[in-house]
Amino acid sequence: MKLKLDCFRALLGEYEIKKPKPIKLDIKTDRIRDKDIVSWEEIETAMSFCKGIRDKAILSFFVTTGLRSSDVRRLKISSLIQACDIYFEEGEEKNLETLLSKNPDDIIPCWEMMPKKTDPKSQLCVTFNTPEASNYLWQYLNDRIEKNIKKGENGIINPDEPLFATSKKNHLRENAVEKLFQRLNDNLGGRKDKNGVFGRVRTHSVRKLFSTTVRRNLTQIVVNSDKTSEIDIVSIFTGHVPPNESNSKVYEAIEDDSHDSYLRKVYTALVPYLSIQNVEVKESKTQQHTNLEEQNEALKKQLPAQAVSMQREMDRQKEQYEKKIQQIESVNSALSTQVTDIQKQIDTINHLNDITRIQDYIADNDLVKKYSLASKIVDLYKEDMEKGIASVDNSYMDTLITRAYNHSIYEGENEFITQEEYIETDELYEKLRDEIFGDYNALLQGTNIQVSDLQNKKINEKLEEHLMKTWKSKGKVNHKYINDIIEDIILNG
């Protein structure tokens, strides 16, 4: 009927006759039951009624791929070569001759296409056929090659030739496929579908058998038993529009076919349920893929041993590292002790040098000789060294003589000091002295001014005079006067 309507529409179009508006039929669609579609037992029986190997190849291909008639009829030899791409070894020529040299029982082709019926709203269809169907297909193609040779041809099938061809190497027409299924249905007793219109064995019926078998047995396989995934898988295999909008994005990211792809694993697990006869499913892989898997397994076995070995090596290196750290710390400690000892020795030498210098400086001093101040001067120097305030120069040594002299008087060590030499010493004197000479030392340290011995002597004499005057008058230190004295001597000599 469809063919006749198509011809009628073409006739109207040829003569530019306005076509009548399509009549939309309100046909009620009821849910079908198992008894309403063809069974696997009937498919097995129908295989025995096929006239030749081509009919067996067509029937087994339809029922194990779930493809529509329009999609099957447009397949080419090149489509088969592309569907079997993963079975070619690296560097192997990808042609039909090479493909037919392989065992079909090991091959599950992957068919990818945009279904013709649903254009332009097509969803990518990705499906497979069983090794059993591959076996029939191999037999059919080899039979075509033998017939070509008998006809005096070279025996090569052109890649652009149809996968299922007529005797004239053309694509099968729709009515040819319909006649094939009608003949098989008649041999099965001419049974009709639930509506009593179509035969039970027809392309659409076997498509329903495929989708029902896939959906019903998805929960029996290990790959995935999620109900949403079941619906998605069936939609992908049959090229249907996704049943729920939330999953429509899944179809935009279907992975390429490989031995490890999810779709191939699912279909391979379903092969026992999609086979017409009981078959043993063998997972076929290229030698390169097999070699990689063997290498992976070998690496997995080596990893634990390597991990233990690496851990031991790391522990050994850690132990050596810790020993070296201890050795370095021990050496550092010894060096630190040596440095401290050396520094002490240097300080001792410096102190001895300072004492020698002081002794040389006071050797000819009359005041020191007269009142035996040498020992006191050395004691005062040592006290200053402990406080870290000693800086031995002529000014400092003059100060030591004065301090020793005053201490001798204050402590009563010299009872017969003359009145002219006597200086009454108290806390005020010491405070004034520290303040006046503190200004001088602060100025030298703050400005880094270089003062000659002569300048230093003059400054000390002036400061001593100011000290005595201030002490006797019980007054305060005139800091400005001190700065003026120092600047005048430094600038003018």
Q: Which descriptors would you attach to this protein?
A:
493 residues; mainly alpha; hpI Integrase, Chain A; two-stranded antiparallel sheet
Task: Give an overview of the whole structure.
- The chain has 493 residues and is an all-alpha fold.
- The chain has 2 domains: 245 residues, hpI Integrase, Chain A (Orthogonal Bundle), CATH 1.10.443; 136 residues, no CATH class.
- The protein contains 18 helices and 2 strands.
- A two-stranded antiparallel ribbon has the order 1-2.
- α9 packs antiparallel against α10, α12 packs antiparallel against α14 and α16 runs antiparallel to α17.
- The longest helix has 76 residues.
- The termini are far apart.
Query: Approximately how much beta-strand content do the residues carry?
Result: under 5%
CATH homologous superfamily title of the largest domain = Intergrase catalytic core
Radius of gyration of CA atoms, rounded to a whole number: 57 Å
Return the CATH class of the largest domain.
Mainly Alpha
How far is the N terminus from the C terminus?
Answer: 135 Å
Low-confidence stretches: 412-425
Roughly what percent helix? 55-70%
Helical region count? Answer: 18
Question: Which class do the helix and strand fractions yield?
Answer: mainly alpha
Give the SSE layout.
Layout: H1 2-14, H2 40-48, H3 53-65, H4 69-73, H5 77-83, H6 96-100, E1 110-113, E2 125-128, H7 131-150, H8 174-187, H9 203-217, H10 227-238, H11 262-274, H12 287-362, H13 366-371, H14 374-387, H15 394-410, H16 427-447, H17 453-473, H18 479-492
Antiparallel strand pairs: 1-2
